[in-house]
Write a structure and sequence with these properties.
This protein is α+β, with helices and mostly antiparallel strands and 307 residues long. The chain contains 11 helices and 15 strands. The longest helix has 26 residues.
């Protein structure tokens, strides 16, 4: 199993969802009160359980599964996972909680947006209501004076949380800080529709203010130079927005806007071939995320035009 100790009491798990390595991470926070960050999708729950066993954490000792948001790749497996964690509860944003309790609308919506990728992730099972802990802020006791701090970071989704762990001072940003392609040491946007740029930028300000020592990306893995990466990501989002707004004004097609983004964003230039050759990333980054920024531009310009 692909586990890696990346800090004190902190283990990264490569979930190898659908056989794709370096796609989705879960994290095990060990110590007196163990916590999982991200359940991952349903289809990789067996891999996560194997990893927990591998590192010697007892299933009954796990107190919480802290998910950043309810999208399938982050929390889709929570209902299935809880069947094996008798004492664990799920920390989730209040806006996301109803969709974990009853995922019947979440699944067709995910299928519509993700297409074939949703089948790679798998259909979510319900999380019992009495095992849901809705939060937008606060702390979780990790034992021995350490804690996990909850930070509301909306923008990527209206139900997004990030977490700061006090063992090492790093942040789990979910999708609030983009997708980290470790092989290329590059971050690319994670902004499917509906995307809200101003909220996303404000959330990044929150994360910058925490002055984290590292970023623990769900997609994928640990990255250093955290504050500079967060600031660079802010500028990247602004760049994508400018390109999309100019494209919408000029009545370009989505494909033409996509080509402009790839041409003008240094990060996309660096990873274009890698992303185009990856069956999951070509759908999520090149299609869904471009649609997200174009949708943002259309909404913004529509308001301006009718003002």
């Amino acid at each position: 199993m692909h586990t890696k100790e990346i800090g004190r009491n902190l283990i990264q798990v490569d979930l190898s969802t659908g056989g794709y390595s370096k796609l989705i991470s879960s994290y095990i926070i060990a110590g007196p009160n163990p916590v999982l960050v991200e359940s991952g999708p349903t289809n990789s729950v067996p891999n996560l359980l194997s990893a927990i066993n591998e590192v010697g954490v007892k299933l009954e000792a796990i107190q919480y599964v802290a998910v950043t948001h309810i999208h399938l790749d982050h929390a889709g497996g929570a209902g299935t996972l809880l069947k094996y964690l008798p004492n664990a509860k799920v920390i989730v944003h209040p806006k996301g909680a109803p969709h974990l309790i009853d995922p019947e609308r979440l699944w067709p919506s995910s299928q519509s947006v993700l297409g074939y990728v949703s089948e790679v992730f798998g259909k979510p099972e319900p999380v019992p209501q009495d095992r849901i802990v809705p939060m937008t802020e606060g702390t979780i006791d990790l034992g021995d004076g350490d804690k996990l701090t909850v930070v509301e970071t909306v923008g990527h989704a209206s139900h997004h949380l990030s977490y700061l762990e006090s063992f090492n001072g790093g942040v789990f940003p979910g999708d609030a800080a983009g997708t980290y392609l470790a092989e290329c040491n590059v971050v690319v946007p994670t902004i499917p529709p509906p995307f809200y740029l101003e909220s996303a930028l404000a959330s990044l300000d929150k994360l910058i203010a925490l002055n984290p020592s590292a970023l623990y990306f769900t997609h994928f893995g640990i990255a250093d130079d955290a504050v500079n990466r967060l600031k660079t990501y802010q500028e990247q989002l602004k760049l994508w927005a400018r390109i999309a707004e100019e494209g919408v004004k000029e009545r370009l097609t989505v494909e033409e806007i996509r080509r402009s983004i790839i041409k003008e964003d240094p990060a996309m230039i660096a990873v274009e071939d890698y992303v185009k050759g990856h069956r999951i990333l070509q759908k999520t980054v090149l299609e869904n995320c471009v649609n997200g920024i174009v949708g943002y531009a259309e909404r913004k310009l529509g308001k301006q035009l009718t003002a």
